[in-house]
Specification:
The chain is built from 16 helices and four strands. By secondary structure, it is mostly helical.
Length: 408
């Protein structure tokens, strides 16, 4: 559908119209909160890191450019007697990708502190009629009495455009729902990481514990790739992992159970990318349970049809015998045993993948992926921000082949 006839999203700077000319500081903080909500609830840590990178890109020394999460968080708190107008402008610029809106907040923040009074409620809205050739919609400032003031910016990024830009970076769906290609270097690196995460834990644990380890530990990499790159790349990761395991072990067993990994990759991938099952933790836990159940049903078919009921694991055989003691058939006992192990295995793999995708690799993840909060304590979060302030731009520069000062 053309953007010319589509209603663009509206970003409200405040909900309460008090005065036709001025804002209070509380209204400014309300505006900041609403802009943050409109920007997919961008975390305070991500805002701080983005501002740090922008300052470094402008030539500020890294030590002076560093900004903690708690400093950003304070700007969103009500009841402030003063606000750092420059920092408020930087926050708004990051949330809207529009320096003109950031400058508007800076000027009104300064005016509010000079007068001790508030500034009026404004509405920052995207124009409903956007020319097709215009890459991004334009923001307007609408005052409480209905008068409209156009900002000077001619090409700004709306909330929807921000999501699409993030989607293009990570290989996520664009406006038409189709998957956009991820950065090739990042894709190649994540494929290698995914294969290693599938093979290494499985090989180490089963070398140490043999067939008595109660988890499969062979789909962590598939889960990571599914969350970051989507179902197609997750399927490729699962296939390559099974093939390499078969070559390394000289056994066809990894290939026989490859359909199990493929089913898991598809459900994880489409669950996160199409059905938004990683927006909240309960939904993601449900998705992991669905992956575990589907993998069990697929594995049960392989065990019953191809292997004649042999589970190929000593711990599974012991558990199957224990279940059969209750008088159930072997097929049901194998299902209960495999389902128990698969649920625990996929739940653990999914949560580890969510933690990695929601923290260190958040920049590359699906925009609909829930934000993983490392700590709610401001001092602890500040220490965490200080630790990652240096290595996160380095990681982005390495993955995207950009100079460090240009890493976004």
């Amino acid at each position: 559908m053309s953007s010319r006839g589509r209603q663009q999203p509206t970003i409200l700077a405040s909900n309460t119209a008090l005065d036709a000319t001025r804002w209070t500081l509380d209204e400014i903080t309300v505006g900041l909160q609403e802009l943050r909500n409109a920007a997919d609830n961008m975390s305070y840590a991500d805002i701080a890191n983005a501002i740090t990178r922008a300052r470094i890109a402008r030539g500020t020394p890294p030590a002076a450019a560093n900004l903690s999460r708690s400093t950003v968080y304070d700007c969103f708190k009500h009841g402030r007697s003063r606000l750092n107008a420059r920092l408020v402008s930087e926050i708004v610029t990051i949330l809207t990708d529009d320096p003109a809106v950031g400058d508007l907040y800076r000027r009104r923040c300064l005016a509010a502190q000079r007068s001790g009074e508030g500034l009026s409620t404004i509405e920052v809205a995207a124009e409903t009629q956007v020319p097709a050739e215009d890459a991004h919609p334009k923001y307007k400032v609408v005052s409480a009495d209905g008068r409209t003031e156009k900002l000077a910016s001619t090409a700004v990024v709306s909330t929807a455009a921000r999501a699409n830009n993030r989607a293009a970076t990570a290989g996520s769906p664009g406006p038409n729902g189709r998957m956009k290609p991820a950065n090739p270097r990042f894709t190649a690196i994540m494929l290698l990481v995914g294969i290693a995460a599938n093979i290494v834990p499985h090989a180490v644990l089963h070398t140490v514990f043999g067939d008595y380890f109660p988890l499969f530990a062979d789909m962590l990499g598939t889960a990571i790739v599914a969350l970051l790159l989507g179902p197609a790349w997750a399927v490729l990761t699962a296939l390559l992992s099974a093939s390499m395991l078969a070559l390394a072990s000289g056994s066809v067993m990894p290939l026989l159970f490859a359909p199990v990994a493929l089913i898991g990759a598809l459900i994880w991938g489409f669950g996160v990318w199409r059905f938004k099952m990683a927006v909240t933790l309960p939904r993601f836990i449900t998705l992991n349970a669905a992956v575990g159940t589907a993998c069990t049903l697929t594995a049960l078919a392989v065990i019953a049809v191809v292997l004649g009921g042999d589970t190929q694991m000593s711990v599974a055989e012991n558990m199957t015998s224990a279940v059969m003691a209750f008088g159930v058939s072997r097929l049901i006992a194998v299902f209960v045993t495999n389902w128990t192990m698969s649920l625990a295995d996929k739940m653990l793999a999914g949560l580890i993948a969510l933690f990695l995708a929601g923290t260190s690799l958040r920049k590359y993840a699906n925009p609909n992926l829930m934000q993983v909060v490392v700590s709610h304590n401001d001092s602890a979060s500040s220490q965490y921000d200080n630790h990652i302030a240096f290595w996160r731009p380095c990681l982005a520069a390495f993955l995207e082949r950009k100079p460090l000062v240009d890493a976004r």
